Amino acid sequence: MVSFFQSIKKSKEQFSQTHFTKSPEFSNIQKLMPSLFGYDYVASGTAGNDVMIASINENSKLSGLDGNDVLIGGTQDDLLIGGAGADNIIGGQGHDIILGDDPGLPFKTGADYILAGDGNDEVDGGESNDLLYGDGGDDNLYGGNGNDKAYGGVGLDSIYGDGGDDYIYGEDGNDYVGGGSGNDWAYGGDGDDWLNGWSGDDVLDGGEGNDVFIDDNGKDDMYGRDGDDKFLFDEDSYEDLYAGGDGDDIVDFGGYDLSNYTFVKNSFGVYCTNKITDVTDWLNGIEHVNSKATGSLTMDEVLKRYGSIAADDQANTLLSQAMSGFGATSSSGTDAISLQDQSQSSYFAVDSGLKHNTI
């Protein structure tokens, strides 16, 4: 993943310098006209490949229509609509609204490249597989359908992948990252971020900062990394991973009753199993568990109240050695070890994570 993002960052730096030199077929450069619809200047493209440049000092509306178009915003607040085709859109310095496809058209095609620029921008990639850069400002990026790649840049960004399998990178600032439907990969980056995979089997990586993870439908792997992270637990039918990393991390069960779960510790961490649905989630590097009924408990307190000790392969070996000579019998199902030459029978339970063993 690291090399992938390094290559994308490199291409981002070279985007405005190299991307357009490969399109010599552009022939229609639109001039702007006064508008009566809320924008000072308006330009509409043709069925071909158009180059459209907004007014420097006026609010502009550019519509590329068909073809693979280039739209460049000015210093003011512009509306840039790529339309059908694979378009390249640069927002400029104002607070822009950028749409990769025209929402009024029934057919929306083309993979768009959008660099929002400075300012607080609204970006909608539309259909197909889009590449979105928020750049400067507090941006709202919406990937739309397709397998999109979205990068927030500097600022407090909100990024939503929507349909498809998306790669979302919050970068600098305190960002909200939402995967949408599909199997998404999301990285918060620097700052205190909120990450939500929504539906699908997602990988959520908070990066640096004190991040909040919202577990939703799907089999999700969540990694807090640096900082004091918080994971909002969801009682669904999928097995999820809550990995805290460095810092003081917590899993918040909200209104769910902890007594409905068994917590078992092994060499990997702690896994909790719903007693009713038998769904198991994994907790690794988690220091606290919170619920409305109990408040905040340390993991040791949780294990004392609701937990047991898992017998992994090494523990099973040690147990077998320790109990040799006591008349032990074992099977692949329920294991039993009888203590011979005792006036009373004694029992204790060990949970192997697979079968129930009675000693």
What's the SSE blueprint?
Blueprint: H1 2-18, E1 28-30, E2 33-34, E3 41-44, E4 50-53, E5 60-63, E6 70-72, E7 79-81, E8 88-90, E9 97-99, E10 113-115, E11 122-124, E12 131-133, E13 140-142, E14 149-151, E15 158-160, E16 167-169, E17 176-178, E18 185-187, E19 194-196, E20 203-205, E21 212-214, E22 221-223, E23 230-232, E24 241-243, E25 250-252, E26 261-265, E27 270-274, E28 280-284, E29 288-291, E30 295-298, H2 299-306, E31 307-309, H3 313-322, E32 328-329, E33 336-337, E34 349-351, E35 356-358
Parallel strand pairs: 1-4, 3-5, 4-6, 5-7, 6-8, 7-9, 8-10, 9-11, 10-12, 11-13, 12-14, 13-15, 14-16, 15-17, 16-18, 17-19, 18-20, 19-21, 20-22, 21-23, 22-24, 23-25, 24-28, 25-29, 26-31
Antiparallel strand pairs: 2-3, 26-27, 27-28, 29-30, 32-33, 34-35
Key structural traits:
359 residues, mainly beta, 16-stranded mixed beta sheet, 15-stranded mixed beta sheet, 35 strands, 10% helix, elongated, disordered N terminus, disordered C terminus
Based on CA atoms alone, the radius of gyration comes out at 28 Å
Uncertain regions spanning at least 5 consecutive residues: 1-37, 311-315, 325-359
Q: Give the fraction of residues assigned to helices.
A: under 10%
Distance between the ends: 48 Å
Written description of the protein model:
By secondary structure, the protein is mainly β. Among the domains are: 228-310, no CATH class; 322-358, no CATH class. It has 3 helices and 35 strands. The strands form 4 sheets. Strands 1-4-6-8-10-12-14-16-18-20-22-24-28-27-26-31 form a 16-stranded mixed beta sheet.
